[in-house]
Amino acid sequence: MSAAAGARGARTGKPVGAITRGTTNPNRLRRQDRWIAHALVPALRHAEAAPVVVDLGYGAAPWTAVELFDRLRAVRADVRMVGIEIEPDRVAAAQRVARPPELTFRRGGFEVPLDGNRRPLLIRAANVLRQYDEDEVTAAWARLCARLAPDGLLVEGTCDEIGRKQAWVALGPEGPRTLTLSAHLASLERPSDLAERLPKALIHRNVPGEPVHAFLRDLDRAWAAAAPYADFGVRQRWLAMVRAVADSWPLTDTQARHRLGELTLRWEAVAPG
């Protein structure tokens, strides 16, 4: 999203952004959903009535919005989900699964249009910025973060077609906080295989001299050293890898999250140099 495109959208009232490929599959974003439901527990439970969450750029079919809505309802029964898409035909097609007022769909883009200009507790933008240039990411993040509630969260990242390899950045109103890697461990050859799914802000930075490259290098080395643990299962190998890098990198999550094939660390440790 270039600055010029954002300005034009603001002047004309048209959605800000570009149409994505729209690729989607049921349960593709289950790993993100699971992490979001865990991370948002405090904010959801302390929010005022009917907190609003947004699935931005949900794609050609509305499955990701429906699935995230159902998973968040387990935490907060009165949560309101708004699926936002820039392509009118996708919005029209999604109406068949809408459950107003709890689950609705509307046309929009990075301006995140909501009734009464409400500020959402969550904006999830999965596989949206992947098609943009790296130098457009900062402006897109800033625009989306400005729409968040004071204790809100922006989750922006990418995944493969069936959701076995995922990576995302979590941002608060102030900016980026953490990077999470998540993998289907049984199909993972080495941690650096996740590099192809890094968020746009990092995917071109996986080169020598950049922090994210060093992080993936250290994960691969620890993974190789943990090979004997594979006799006890791939999860034990992953946990041994995590323990090996914990003293060198600022991990923020717990073993319960690690057991799910996740790894989260503070953003500043891998931010582009």
Total number of β-strand segments?
Answer: 8
Rg, Å, rounded:
19 Å
Q: Profile the largest sheet.
A: 8 strands, mixed
Q: Calculate the terminal CA-CA distance, rounded to whole Å.
A: 22 Å
Q: Provide the β-strand percentage band.
A: 15-25%
The CATH topology of the largest domain corresponds to Rossmann fold
Shape: globular
Mean pLDDT: 94
Q: CATH class of the largest domain, please?
A: Alpha Beta
Helix coverage percent: 25-40%
Question: What is the succession of H and E elements?
Answer: HHHEHEHEEHEEEHHHHE
Unreliable parts: 1-11
Explain briefly what this protein structure is.
The chain has 273 residues and is α/β, with parallel strands linked by helices.
Protein architecture, described:
There is one protein chain. By secondary structure, the protein is of the alpha/beta class. Strand 4, helix 6 and strand 5 form a beta-alpha-beta unit. Helix 8 crosses helix 9. The N terminus is likely disordered.
How does the SSE layout of this entry go?
Blueprint: H1 3-12, H2 30-39, H3 41-46, E1 52-56, H4 63-73, E2 80-85, H5 88-94, E3 103-107, E4 122-126, H6 137-145, E5 153-159, E6 165-172, E7 175-183, H7 200-203, H8 211-225, H9 234-245, H10 255-258, E8 262-266
Parallel strand pairs: 1-2, 1-4, 2-3, 4-5
Antiparallel strand pairs: 5-6, 6-7, 7-8
Helix pairs in contact: 2-4, 8-9
What structural keywords apply?
273 residues, alpha/beta, Rossmann fold, eight-stranded mixed β-sheet, 10 helices, methyltransferase, SAM-dependent_MTases_sf, Class I SAM-dependent methyltransferase, transferase
